[in-house]
Structures are given as structure tokens and as C-alpha cells.
Description:
Elements: H1 7-23, H2 26-35, H3 41-49, H4 68-81, H5 87-101, H6 104-115, E1 121-124, E2 139-141, E3 144-153, E4 160-166, E5 172-178, E6 184-188, E7 198-207, E8 209-210, H7 216-251, E9 253-254, E10 257-258, H8 263-292, H9 297-322, H10 334-348, H11 351-364
Parallel strand pairs: 1-4
Antiparallel strand pairs: 2-3, 3-7, 4-5, 5-8, 6-7, 9-10
Amino acid sequence: MNFGFSDEQDAIRGTLARMLSDHATLAVAHDCLDTAEGFDTATWAALADGGWLGLAIDEEAGGSAMGAVELAILAEEIGRSLAAVPFAPVLGLATPAIQDMGTQSQKEELLSGIAEGRMIVAAALAEDGGLAPERVSAKVVQDRLSGRKSPVSFAADASFALVAAMDAGGTPRLYLVDLSDPSVSINALDAIDCTRPAAEIVFHNTPVELLPGSDPAAIRTLLDGAAVLAAFEQIGLAERALSMTKAYACERRAFGRQIGSFQAVKHRLADMFAKIELARSNAFFGAWALASKDNRLAEAAAVARLTALDAVQFTTEESVQLHGGIGFTWAADPHLFLRRGWQLKAELGPADLWRERLLCDLANGPLASN
Length: 370
């Protein structure tokens, strides 16, 4: 089993990294915070122009028909650059849901618009921190949706929403909702990371379209795939935070020496590195399981999610601490990484949720009968 990247995939990473370094700089992230305009439309447009938004979309819909590994590379580089773009909701959730569960007309209507950057489809799955299908109270009766979803990232910038709701028989399903409908209310929330604006969406007897291939098992698989991609985004973020902190430790001097020469600082940097590499190993397994449709995807996704959450929280908090007094200031960069790490945790649920998913999967898996 080879978890390495091919020469073509390494070339994809290099091209993408250069493009993001030109557009999604930390100065842009600061500007997004200062102006409260969280969506970096210029970077999103550049991703669309480069064909990156259609990486995993079928060719007939305007994509390049690549797979999970290429999406993982994109996720990691977006995390590394702190790009203020809706990668996770659009490419991690909405696109695979439409492509795998939608009708032909739904695919034709939405996928080409996503690939070209003309359309954003928000992912409205969460209800007060719970994820479908574990916690769903929104209901659809006679193709009309009532309920509320919170938090929904980039909802104010989206044209459509992918919504998890109960059908008339009490089964969680996925629906598409036109957010321009007057029965939809979108209320901004105070996001932890203002470069990923969040909102609450309230549906008042809103017309919907069912994704006919959606059911509880399909929704769980969708979330598992999103968790793997989110793990790569978190790894890229944590690795950039470690690199930035290491550079600062080699530059900052105290008592006549670089602070990076002190044993205590070295140990903390080494701990950051170890957690990132553990998360990377688990994320590689998750990407392989997602790409090969292996039956261990649920387990691999949960482990990738848990170790990535641990790595990004530890690394970003240590980064703030090791930057000393300047690390707590608004003008410095460490809080950008800390905020993004917290926001990524909120978007797909905390560690307790994924730990419970992992335990349930292990209890019901093939080892349970041995």
C-alpha cells in the first residue's frame, strides 16, 4: 500500500501552492478580519480560473474528473494559505452530494456553476453543533421544509443550500434549497473566525428538491469524506503555524541567545511536529479509504478527524504562547491560525462527536464478532 504522492500530484501541489501564495496571503486574511468581509472572492475566482474547483467534478459537467487524493492536496494547501474561501462546504460536502446522490437535472444545473465559480452551495447540515443524521429536527412535508440550521458557513454568499432534514417517514434525507426564496431567512452569527462567516438559516415552509440517492448511510459516508478533507486542511494549517513559530524562535533572542536554542522551546516544537505527523499518517489512510471506497472509511475518517483536531489545537495554541507577548496581539499572525483551527472544529463537530462515531463503528465492525 503506497501512501506517497505521484509526480503528477506533486506537480499539482506545486502549481497550487504558487497560485495561493500570490492571492491568499496573510495580509489578505488580516484585511478580511479588519473589514468583516470574510469571503475572499479574488482567490475563489483564481481557483475557478485554474480549474481547481472542478477537480473532482465529472468532465461532462465542466470538471477534470480527478479524485479524493487531488482534493486532499487542494485542502491541505488551502489550509496552509489560510485562504478565506468556502472549500469545505462547497467541494467537501455539496459537490460530492450532488454528484453522487442528485438527479441528472440537478447535476446539470449546479455542477458546472460550481466548477466555474459562479455558484456557491452552502452545507446546512448542523443543528446547534449536532450533525446529520445524528441530530436532525428540520422536517419536509409535501416538498416544503421547516426548521433552522446553525451554523452554516458562507450562507450569505451562497445561491443554494444542501440541507439535511427528516422526510415524511422520519428518515434523514438531503435536499436542495434555493436561498433566494422569500421564505428563507439568513441571520449572521458572530463567527470565531471572521474569514469564514457563519449564519443561521431559518426555513418557513420553503420549497425543496430531494436528492434521491440520499439516506442515512449515504449522509454518513458524505460526512466521513468531508472529515478526511478537513483533516488535510487542518494539517496544512498546523504545518504553516509550526513553520512560522520555528522561524520566530530562530529569530527572537533572549539572554543573548535565540529562544529556539533553549531546550524547553525545542521540546515544544518537537511535540508540535510529532502531532502533525501522526495526523498526517492517519489522514493519508483516510484519503486512501475515500479514494478506494474501502469499507474502513468510517473508522479512518474518525481517526483522521480526531488526530487532526488534536494537532491543530495544540500547534496553534503553542504558536501563540511561543510568540510571547506579541503572539496575543491583533496585528500578529498567530491568532489567525488559532481562529481558523477553532472554526474548522465547529464546522464538522467537536472531538466528542467523532470519538462517539469511532466507538460505534468499532463496536459494530467486523472485529466486534471476534
